[in-house]
Amino acid sequence: MARENPTWSLRRIAAELATLGHDVNKDTVAEYMPGRPGRPRHCASQTWATFVRNHLAGTLAIDFLTVPTVTFCVPYVFFVLWLKRRRILHVNVTKHPHAAWSAQQLVKALGPDAPMATRLIRDRGGIFGAVFDARADHLGLRQLRIAPGSPWQNGFAER
After folding, report:
1. Band of the pLDDT at 111, cuts 50, 70, 90?
2. SS3 string of 69-124?
């Protein structure tokens, strides 16, 4: 039925099957639908949360937050969080953040007492620029940049 009527939706096919006496849900119809030519079937992969749980030991999360003061000044707070123990490794404050300053803070966070890190979760903020990327690559960190419009994917640092 799907091959003969390629424009029909799953609900329409389920409704037509119901008129023939077959009570079938649209989700059941979807299981037996042929794949579209030229389009590979979606293979199951782990979710973002599963990936982060599997790699907690070597993963850091970084972010900026703002703190309004009594004098209406808004400084930026940069922090580095180790995900395995949810331990804050480094915190620093500035009024004017930029990529070079952020990169230097990352180097300070990964001092001799810091755990071995291989991955870095961060957002795609404008504060992190080419200088930051180069320094993180030089430190051997694989950067996992969170997509814009997905604020809860970096839930560790956002909390």
Report:
1. confident
2. CCCCCCCEEEEEEECCCCEEEEEEEECCCCHHHHHHHHHHHCCCCCCCCCEEEECC
